[in-house]
Specification:
The protein contains 13 helices and 18 strands. By secondary structure, the protein is of the alpha/beta class. It has three domains: 3-123, Response regulator (Rossmann fold, 3-Layer(aba) Sandwich); 146-374, tm_1862 like domain (pyruvate-formate lyase- activating enzyme); 380-433, OB fold (Dihydrolipoamide Acetyltransferase, E2P). A six-stranded parallel sheet has the order 2-1-3-4-5-6, sandwiched between helices. It has a five-stranded mixed barrel with strand order 14-15-16-18-17. The protein has a four-stranded mixed sheet with strand order 8-7-9-10. Helix 12 (311-322) packs parallel to helix 13. The termini are far apart.
Length: 434
């Protein structure tokens, strides 16, 4: 291929694991001589890294594929990710798709590109009952202030609504030595914050020899690597030991931020979801976290409109959240995924009802977030500067996951800064650099 035409754009939907894997593919493509350009510029090669957690993300994936062709009719479209893994035939039927590869096949993207394929090429391993491949590795992040390290992939939980175990396979962990090496390398390159990611991070280390766990990994990062900030990705409520909370409380390195999937605040709904805790356990957990880490951000995932969810059950969820000392919510309407037990459950909730319930929960989440944020007015917060300088305002992320805007700082992106917080706005806290 002519060097001038070796342009590539990567479009990514979904979770931080997908974002990490897109960054890893981008790094390999750059090393192979490709020029990475924005999606809207119509690249010769387009990689669409799909998500299938909801019907909406399936639709977004299809729209991105068609849009790539409108931008450059002659482009070569490669589709990967969870939607490609679960339903490669649906992806293959979209005009212009040259290649469909599964999640495990992402690591072989360059090899597939080098091969000559006269017809459409499909490589999707059915790993729903296998261990699958280890997570991809990444040595740097282009044009990003924070770096991500994927320590684990796959999931063995099989919540009744979730397609991800079928798309990602069984849980498998990156060896601790590999995780430490990646983080040390990113720290040496000057990244002020590293985020640990995974599909089911609390399962980290169970499949390794010798067996280990997330707490031991975080302890080793704390003890062995000079790193300003370490942030943890999503953790299941049953996999947050007191030892981890104590380590976070004593650490100047680990960010006081926990992302925890609640999913529902009613015991009967939790049972139908195949979630292995009840509301009393969850309430006690959040109160315990708040006592140990009183200024920590605690974000919850919640699903509205799960099959059979009555008005009473929904109100139980709303009331539980109202009474919890949390900082923000991620709210999703239930999405029926063929192949999951929930898809065939009776009493599917109408879409308009689910959307109304989402709106109620999102409004509650906004109030919780404002209340949490306003307690820091008058304080000095350390931020990692992320945004450009739109309208003269820079943007950074505080240790406890608050967005902080400030005047100036155009040359600070990717560095730490300290901001005196002076007020709140819907876009986040606002203050002045000091």
């Amino acid at each position: 291929m002519d060097q001038v035409k070796r342009t590539v754009a990567i479009a990514t939907l979904g979770c931080k694991t997908n974002q990490f894997e897109s960054a890893a593919m981008e790094e390999r493509l750059r090393e192979a001589g490709y020029q990475v350009i924005p999606f809207e510029e119509g690249a010769d090669l387009v990689v669409v890294n799909t998500c299938t957690v909801t019907a909406a993300t399936d639709s977004q994936s299809r729209n991105l594929i068609r849009r790539a062709r409108r931008l450059n009719f002659d482009c070569r479209v490669i589709v990967t990710g969870c939607y490609a893994q679960i339903d490669p035939s649906a992806i293959s039927s979209i005009p212009g798709v040259a290649m469909v590869i599964g999640n495990d096949e992402k690591k072989d993207l360059l090899r597939y590109l080098a091969e000559e394929h006269e017809a459409q090429f499909v490589a999707v391993d059915n790993h729903s009952h296998s261990r699958g491949q280890l997570p991809l590795s990444l040595s740097s992040f282009t044009e990003r202030s924070r770096a991500f390290v994927q320590i684990q992939s796959g999931c063995d939980a099989f919540c009744s609504y979730c397609i991800i175990p079928y798309a990602r396979g069984s849980s498998r962990s990156l060896p601790t030595s590999d995780v430490l090496r990646q983080i040390a390398g990113l720290a040496e390159r000057g990244f002020p914050e590293v985020v640990l990611t995974g599909i089911h991070m609390g399962a980290y280390g169970r499949d390794l020899e010798p067996e280990t766990n997330l707490l031991e990994l975080v302890r080793r990062i704390e003890d062995e690597i000079e790193l300003p900030r370490l942030r943890l990705g999503s953790l299941e409520p049953t996999e947050i030991p007191d030892g981890l909370l104590s380590l976070m409380s004593d650490s100047d390195k680990i960010c006081p931020h926990l992302h925890i999937p609640l999913q529902a605040g009613d015991n009967e709904v939790l049972r139908r979801m195949n979630r292995h805790y009840d509301t009393a356990f969850f309430h006690q957990l959040i109160e315990r976290i708040h006592r140990k880490l009183p200024e920590a951000a605690i974000g919850l995932d919640v699903i509205a409109g799960f099959p059979g969810e009555s008005e009473v059950e929904f109100e139980n969820t709303r009331r539980l959240i109202e009474n919890l000392p949390i900082s923000h919510l991620h709210v999703f309407p239930y999405s029926r995924r063929p192949g999951t037990p929930a898809a065939s459950m009776p009493d599917q909730v109408p879409g308009d009802v689910a959307r109304q319930r989402c709106a109620i929960l999102r409004s509650l989440g906004e109030r919780k977030n404002r209340s949490f944020a306003e307690q820091f007015i008058g304080r000095v917060l350390e931020v990692v500067v992320e945004g450009g300088n739109r309208g003269g305002w820079g943007r950074g992320l505080a240790r406890n996951y608050l967005t902080v805007q400030f005047r100036g700082g155009s040359k600070l992106q990717g560095r730490r800064a300290w901001v005196k917080v002076e007020g709140w706005s819907p876009a986040g806290l606002r203050g002045s650099l000091i």
